[in-house]
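INFO batch 0412 | record 1 of 1 | parsing
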Amino acid sequence: DVGLARVVRALDEVTRRTSGMRVKIALENTAGAGNALGRRFAELGRMIERAQRPERLGICIDTCHLFAAGYDIRTLAGYRRAVEECAGEVGLSRVLAFHLNDARAALGSGLDRHANIGEGWLGRAAFGFLLNDPRFSRPGTRCGSEEPRDAPPASPSEDWARGHLDDVTPTRRQSARTGQTEHFGEIGVQRFCPNVTSRSL
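INFO prediction complete | emitting tokens
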């Protein structure tokens, strides 16, 4: 509770200093290493509900972090459970963005180790579930894919972003924090995984 209160105070300070702005803050879920907060949707939900300006807050779901924190979204049943928990604890309308990455470490590892999509423990099916889910096809919902530092110049991340996000015009930026290349675009109902349809979700 001490850590949670500290996060809420910081969020309140940020929204107070930016009171004339409409921009929203997206809280990203964590992989859950050590005492990190935000590994469960319930923790993110409490941060938002305790803040003075909850209407300025939402979340960004990082798929690698989600898997590392113990959410097994490799099956449709597991994906549904995760989304239902998110809906109950945070609310799907508060999902502002997705950080789409595979995971280099096993389920529940707590390790923040990104991999190119389809090259890690998470696999491609999970991304098919997510990108075909009509609940996340709202205009303005953003998605990004981070290119690991040791990826080759023509990385699978970039090929994936160009070839499979049918409704996305990807943009690239160099992360000031990590030096990694990130790809961003607007998410829509996709055909990334041909065996998954929006009806099945």
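INFO post-check: The domain at 2-200 is CATH 3.20.20.150 (TIM Barrel).
INFO record closed
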